[in-house]
Structure formats: structure tokens, C-alpha cells
Amino acid sequence: MVARTVGRDDDPGTIIFGMAEHEDGTGNALIFMMSTEEPDEQETGLGMDTYCVVREDQAGTTYGGVTHCEIASGRLTLHFTEEATKELQVEPIVRVDLQIDDDGVELLRSSLREILLSGRRDQHPHGMRL
Predict the structure, then answer these.
(1) How far is the CA of 123 from the CAs of 29, 49, 52, 72, 127, in angstroms?
(2) For the chain, how big is the Rg over CA atoms in Å?
(3) Is pLDDT at 58 greater than 80 in this prediction?
């Protein structure tokens, strides 16, 4: 995957960060979301009390599931659990070539750090090098 654009939206109750293949937000895309509100009993019972990852056009959605996350040499590498790979219909390791400017890389770093460390601790990545 190639990311040529990134963006963030801080809505009331939700933080959304996305990266996409094309400048207009189309093509391959990954969207990361977190709630800024306390989960209710139903969300906790359904395992929705952590961050969410969505593929373009909601082709796949998973809650949690990122085990490692690293930015190095202009590339973001994400490692997913087996369950997350099935839900998102991706390989266990997704590499995203970052064709974005320095401000975009900083937005990516800060947003992923915040989102992936939200929610249940058992869903936080074991390793993060951002």
C-alpha cells in the first residue's frame, strides 16, 4: 500500500485518523478510530472498548488487533493478529510506503500513538517505534 494523504478529525466523542492511496482519499485506505468517552456495558461485552481499524469503504473492520507498529525509512509497518487479518482481509504484516510530507508523518506518528494506546490494555501493540 502507498499513502499519499493523511488526515485527522477530532469529532465530539471520537478521534479519527486516516491514510489513503490517493489525494482525494480514495484507493487503498486505513482508518484508525478511538472513542474519547467511557465504553458502556454493551461495548465492553462486544469487545468494542478499544480502538478500531477500518479498511476503505468498510471492506473490513476490527477492534484492536495491532501487535506491532513501526515507522522506518519512509515506511509504516503494521503487524496484525490472526483475527484482525481475517476481519480486515489483509496480510499479517502490512507495509505502507509513506509518500507524505514531514507534517503528515508527524500527524501519523502522534495520531497512531494516541489511538493505538487507547482502550483496553490487552489490545495495545506490544511494540511501537514511532
Answers:
(1) 21, 10, 10, 23, 12
(2) 14
(3) no
Phi-psi map region of 64: left, alpha, beta (phi>0 left; psi -120 to 50 alpha): left
- From the number of C-beta atoms within 10 Å of its C-beta (0-12, 13-18, 19+), residue 70 rates as middle
Grid cell digits, residue 106: 508527524
Q: Are 75 and 96 in contact (CB under 8 A)?
A: yes
How big, in percent rounded to 5, are the helix, strand and coil portions of the chain? Answer: 25, 40, 35
Contact between residue 76 and residue 99 where contact means Cβ atoms under 8 Å apart: no
| % of the chain surpassing 90 pLDDT | 78
Q: How confident is the model at residue 68 (pLDDT cuts 50, 70, 90)?
A: very high
